[in-house]
Every structure is written in structure tokens, then in C-alpha cells.
């Protein structure tokens, strides 16, 4: 089966509360997404994302009964650390994690929508740049933006990337894209719900690194 | 006291065997060296170096009596994992860690020797580039080399960097440099000893990332 659909996200309940345990289980398979990108350059980004997940999990495990939804965690930290919140704890880790998740979402959506550079149809640069601009760029100072541009040269070819997402399978491009589309349904809903939660709790920050 | 001299390396014994416990204790203070560099850009490098240290420590703690020196660890892994060695375990972690240590050594030595760009005497670019070329460049493919060039823009000013190395103190430049020189004595001897051990055990690899 495909890397993506093996670890599909669950549909959200009507109130769009994200179940912490399910979220952590599913999301912890995503860093291997970066292995699909093929270059060791992405190993360090993977550690950053893994670090976010580890931090949220550590808070959750302190009191699973109390932290049933992600919002429970963010609200509890707002109470406990009023002065530094939201730049603290799992609230900060999830703030950054959601940006990485959004990056992946926009990249996959753009591929699924067939967006291509007509002159280089087998490159995914346009899709990666779009994802970067929508999810991360405004939180990066100019040095990190320059690092991103350099790292872009390590982006894999479209065909190899799609094959890697369906690892093992000898999948046709159309089948890969169908998998991507199916994966995106619950995934996008989950990421959107986390963004909405940050907006409604006024937990979003826009400092740059 | 200074960041460097608070955690000075011990002199080596005559046989130049590096004591594992002392090495790990001292070296675990070094990642804060990257905080002196001032930019969040270096946080990810710090995690890579910390990862190396954690890996070596985990092996050591499995049997401290057996792994008294770093060479004991490397030799034990050569026996235990003949097929994959040296690209495995603490042997691999120390292979990379020593390159980061060499980078720091060459950078500090170059500052201590007063090497400067006459047109930009308060920039440390020439020193950082020298350290990169001697310690890391040949192990980095062209994308990572490009990332290095981008990251170089985040290098701090010479005066700020020297002040950060003597954190807290209102130290004069000459005092800071004297501290650096004293730190380098045992530090350089330790790093050299690890390099010699890798050469004599034929444990060095030159693949690029
Ligand atoms: C020696 C030679 C080389 C020298 C130089 C090398 C320098 C390399 C540095 C590159 C940096 C770029 C990526 C990392 C950026 C990270 O700095 C940011 C902020 O990171 C957050 O920071 C917080 C504090 O402000 C907390 O510590 C968070 O941690 S906490 O859990 O403790 O709260 C942490 O995630 N994360 C980000 O920007 C997130 C990045 C997600 C990436 C998503 C996919 C991108 C794929 C790109 C494909 C083309
Ligand atoms: C989203 C936007 C941004 C997108 C893109 C961001 C991409 C960022 C990627 C930057 C990569 C550069 C630095 C990291 C390089 C690392 O890849 C290498 C090899 O790392 C080693 O790899 C081994 C396997 O081959 C093991 O996993 C080792 O791990 S193991 O412990 O498991 O065995 C591991 O250390 N370490 C290195 O090259 C070592 C680097 C030491 C640095 C020393 C100081 C440099 C200071 C520079 C000052 C100017």
C-alpha cells in the first residue's frame, strides 16, 4: 500500500475537535515523507518536525485523560503559563508543526491539481515554492529563505517523488495521484481545524526565525 | 568565567587514549557554542551535533566498564557489526562529531592567530570559511555546500562572537583571545587523538551528504 494511505487521517467529528491520541499516532508517520524527498539535506528538517511531535506527545502523556483533544492542551498551557504563552510548550510545537503539515498539504494539493512548469514538467519546483510561500516563508528571515532556495536544488523529480509516495507499488502516475487526492480529504480537514483553533484562541504568532 | 574555560578538556594520558566519560561530559557543553553564533539558523546544526553525542553516550552507558576509552567503543563495534562497520552506531556518530569539533577548533585557532579580512576586520567569514574547508566541505555535496554559503550570512560579528564566548564577563578582546588559546591546548590534542584513532583503525569514510 501507499505510504500515505497506510496512515490515513481520521475524519473529524462535527465539532472539529482533533483527538490528541489519533493525531499523534497518524502524524508520527509523516516525517518519513521527508525521506521521499530523497536527499540527506532533508534529514535535519525531519528532526525539527520530529522534535515538535515529541514535545506534544510528552505533554499529552502527562495526563491523557485531561488532554483528549489538541485544544485541551493549548488551553491548559494558556492557563498554566499565562506570561510566556503561546511561545511555550506544546502550543509552540504545534504552532510550527501545523506549518510543516500545511507545507506538505499545499505541495500534495498542487501536484494533485496537475500544476506544472510547462518548460520542466518533471520538476516539482513550482509546487514546492508554492507550498513554501503559503506555509512557511513569512516566518523565515532572509537567511533561512536563502537556505530554502539552496535546498530547493535537492528537490526530486516529479515522477520519482510520486513513485516514492506509493513505495513498493509499481503504480501508474494516475493511481498515485488518486491516492494523494484521497489522503488529502481528511488530512486537509485536520490541518484546517488546527489553524482555526489557533486563530480562535489567538494563539498564532508571526515572529521570524 | 568563560563558556570555554568552564568546561575545559582534560590533558590526554601519554598513550593518548580518550576517556569516554570525561569526553562525553566535556563535549556535551559544546553545543551551546552554536548559541554564540547568535542566529536560530544554527539550532538545527546543534541538534545534529547533540544527536551524535546522545548516540555515543547511549552505547557507553550500556557497559561503562567495557567502554572506558573511545577506542574501546569503536573496536567493539568493529567486531560486532563487521559488515556495516564503520558506517554504524557510535563509530559513525563519532566520525561526524569529530568533524564538528575540528570545525570549532580551526575557527577558534584562526581567530586566536589573528587572521582577518583586512577590508572587514570585524567579520569572521574568512575564519568560518577556513574552518569549513578544513573540516567539512569535502563531506558535503554541492547542495549542502550552497546551504553553507547561505548560512554564512548569519555569522556574527567578531567582537560579538568573542564577547559571547566569554559570556557575562566584560572581557577585553585580548583576554577573550587568551582564554581561547588556553582552551585550545587540550581541546586540539583531544580532537587530533580522535582523528589519529580513526586513521589507525581505518575507520574513516569520505562519502558526502
Ligand atoms: C555546516 C554546513 C551547513 C551550515 C548551515 C546549515 C543551516 C541549516 C538551517 C536550516 C533551517 C531551516 C529549517 C528549520 C527551521 C526552524 O528554525 C523553524 C523554527 O523551528 C521552531 O522554532 C521554535 C522556536 O522559535 C521551537 O524551537 C520549535 O520547536 S519546539 O518543538 O521545541 O517548539 C521549532 O520547531 N522551523 C520551521 O521552519 C519548520 C520547517 C518545516 C519544514 C517543512 C518542509 C520543508 C521542505 C523543504 C523542501 C525544499
Ligand atoms: C524549510 C526551509 C529550509 C529548507 C532547507 C533546510 C535544509 C537544511 C539542511 C542543512 C544541512 C547541513 C548540516 C547537516 C549536515 C548533516 O547531514 C551532516 C551529516 O550528518 C550525519 O549523517 C550520518 C549519516 O550519514 C548520521 O546520521 C549522523 O548522525 S548519527 O549520530 O546518527 O550517526 C549525522 O550526524 N552533518 C554534518 O555535516 C556535521 C555538521 C557539523 C556542523 C559544524 C558547525 C558548522 C557551523 C556553520 C557556521 C556557518
Automatic annotation (TrEMBL), chains A, B:
<dbReference type="Pfam" id="PF08718">
    <property type="entry name" value="GLTP"/>
</dbReference>
<keyword id="KW-0813">Transport</keyword>
<comment type="similarity">
    <text>Belongs to the GLTP family.</text>
</comment>
<dbReference type="GO" id="GO:0016020">
    <property type="term" value="C:membrane"/>
</dbReference>
<dbReference type="GO" id="GO:1902388">
    <property type="term" value="F:ceramide 1-phosphate transfer activity"/>
</dbReference>
<feature type="domain" description="Glycolipid transfer protein">
    <location>
        <begin position="18"/>
        <end position="166"/>
    </location>
</feature>
<dbReference type="GO" id="GO:1902387">
    <property type="term" value="F:ceramide 1-phosphate binding"/>
</dbReference>
<protein>
    <recommendedName>
        <fullName>Glycolipid transfer protein domain-containing protein</fullName>
    </recommendedName>
</protein>
<dbReference type="GO" id="GO:0005829">
    <property type="term" value="C:cytosol"/>
</dbReference>
<keyword id="KW-0677">Repeat</keyword>
<dbReference type="InterPro" id="IPR036497">
    <property type="entry name" value="GLTP_sf"/>
</dbReference>
<dbReference type="InterPro" id="IPR014830">
    <property type="entry name" value="Glycolipid_transfer_prot_dom"/>
</dbReference>
<keyword id="KW-0963">Cytoplasm</keyword>
<comment type="function">
    <text>Accelerates the intermembrane transfer of various glycolipids. Catalyzes the transfer of various glycosphingolipids between membranes but does not catalyze the transfer of phospholipids. May be involved in the intracellular translocation of glucosylceramides.</text>
</comment>
<keyword id="KW-0445">Lipid transport</keyword>
Amino acid at each position: 500500500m501507499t505510504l500515505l494511505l497506510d496512515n490515513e487521517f481520521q475524519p473529524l467529528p462535527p465539532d472539529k475537535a482533533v483527538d490528541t491520541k489519533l493525531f499523534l499516532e497518524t502524524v508520527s508517520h509523516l516525517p518519513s515523507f521527508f525521506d521521499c524527498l530523497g536527499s540527506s539535506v532533508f534529514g535535519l528538517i525531519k528532526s525539527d518536525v520530529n522534535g515538535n511531535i515529541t514535545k506534544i506527545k510528552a505533554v499529552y502523556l502527562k495526563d491523557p485523560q485531561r488532554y483528549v483533544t489538541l485544544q485541551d492542551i493549548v488551553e491548559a498551557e494558556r492557563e498554566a503559563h499565562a506570561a510566556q504563552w503561546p511561545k511555550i510548550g506544546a502550543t509552540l510545537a504545534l504552532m510550527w508543526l501545523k506549518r510543516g503539515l500545511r507545507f506538505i498539504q499545499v505541495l500534495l494539493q498542487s501536484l494533485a491539481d496537475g500544476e506544472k512548469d510547462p518548460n520542466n514538467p518533471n520538476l516539482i519546483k513550482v509546487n514546492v515554492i508554492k507550498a513554501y510561500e503559503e506555509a512557511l516563508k513569512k516566518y523565515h528571515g532572509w537567511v533561512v529563505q536563502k537556505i530554502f532556495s539552496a535546498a530547493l536544488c535537492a528537490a526530486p523529480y516529479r515522477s520519482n517523488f510520486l513513485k516514492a509516495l506509493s513505495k513498493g507499488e509499481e503504480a501508474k502516475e494516475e493511481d498515485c495521484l488518486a491516492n494523494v487526492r484521497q489522503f488529502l480529504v481528511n488530512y486537509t480537514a485536520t490541518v484546517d481545524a488546527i489553524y482555526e483553533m489557533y486563530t480562535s484562541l489567538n494563539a498564532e504568532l508571526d515572529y521570524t526565525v
